[in-house]
Amino acid sequence: MRRRIQTPKEYYAALLICCLVLTITSILHSPKISSTKAPFITTIPTRKTFNMSSEEKPTVPDLLNRSKEDIIAYLGGIYEHSSWVAEQFHESLQTQNSTAAPKTVSELFRAMKEIVNNASHESKLELLKNHPDLCEKIERLSNLTEASRVEQSRAGLGSLTSDERAKFTSLNNAYKAKFGFPFILAVRNATKYTVLSSIEGRVGNTVEAEFVAALGQVHKIAWMRLLAGVRIDNPAGFLTCHVLDTANGCPAANMRIHLKRLSPPESAGFIAEYKTNSDGRLPSGPALKGTDFQVGVYEWTFFVGDYFASKNNELTGTPFLDEVPIRFGIDDPEEHYHVPLLVSPWSFSTYRGS
């Protein structure tokens, strides 16, 4: 004899059990859908691509150990809409000894750059034409919200005034009419003044000279994309400096120096304070090396006023030179960047040393 459900709680529990049983039964006995029995279900073939997020970034050796499909998919967008560069690069890997394959991002870039440089004029021209028109990009930015314009301000395009936009549009139209391809500039680290100055200077080039200049910008864009797309575990590059006192003809010993990183914004800030040794160099060796040596914009600040105050040089009440800032960029994580300062109380000079 079945027991009658007495309470609402028991009733709802029984109802829930019945629903679960019916659901499971329905799933087990439902017909399976296959692409052969359901012609309305189609598959669209697509080229495999990769999202170059930090979690997925491979090192260069790791990348080149992947399948042909993966290598071409990962490198196919390095040169704008020109996967043939990645395809030819992969072909070259098959014809050389494995020990000759690129090991660093610089070697990978040089290999891909050489393929482009050795391509036909028609292929290079098509590559240039594949790049987006900066003028159209500016017009799209003019319709963005204020927040979106701020995000684009690092490239300098979103902050053009109406007069600057009109000037750029006029120059851009003249450029395209003369050369037959869009104005190309690696704008990631450029201000609007760089953009305007560049197109104003380049529109007067000969067709042959501008073809070379535009291709150089394409290579710069490819280099920045490679840097963003691969992981560099142990950068070989490092940063050093050396200060020489030209007023007294000696190394500038005991000069205080600050180093700051200015970009990228997420890692910007004060790095360290140093004091030069008897040779005018940093006593602890390179200021940056290993994983601390990153692509970006940096600034040395040399406290030359304090230094010359400790010498017997005759100085004015208000020093002509007090703090000397030198802003510089690191573009290759595998090279040595050396920043010498030749300084007196009245002048200074610098250059990229070795």
UniProtKB/TrEMBL annotation:
GO terms for cellular component: peroxisome. Keywords: Decarboxylase, Hydrolase, Lyase, Membrane, Purine metabolism, Transmembrane, Transmembrane helix. Residues 67-226 form the Oxo-4-hydroxy-4-carboxy-5-ureidoimidazoline decarboxylase domain. One of its GO terms (molecular function) is hydroxyisourate hydrolase activity. Pathway: Purine metabolism; urate degradation; (S)-allantoin from urate: step 3/3. SUPFAM superfamilies: Transthyretin (synonym: prealbumin), UraD-Like. The keyword Lyase applies. One of its GO terms (biological process) is purine nucleobase metabolic process. The chain crosses the membrane at residues 12-29. Pfam families: OHCU_decarbox, Transthyretin. The keyword Zinc does not apply. Substrate binds at residues 242, 281, 351. Its EC number is 3.5.2.17, 4.1.1.97. It catalyses: 5-hydroxyisourate + H2O = 5-hydroxy-2-oxo-4-ureido-2,5-dihydro-1H-imidazole-5-carboxylate + H(+); 5-hydroxy-2-oxo-4-ureido-2,5-dihydro-1H-imidazole-5-carboxylate + H(+) = (S)-allantoin + CO2. Residues 239-353 form the Transthyretin/hydroxyisourate hydrolase domain. Catalyzes the stereoselective decarboxylation of 2-oxo-4-hydroxy-4-carboxy-5-ureidoimidazoline (OHCU) to (S)-allantoin. NCBIfam families: hdxy_isourate, UHCUDC. Belongs to the OHCU decarboxylase family. PANTHER family: 2-OXO-4-HYDROXY-4-CARBOXY-5-UREIDOIMIDAZOLINE DECARBOXYLASE-RELATED (PTHR43466). Homotetramer. This is Parahox neighbor. It comes from Ditylum brightwellii.
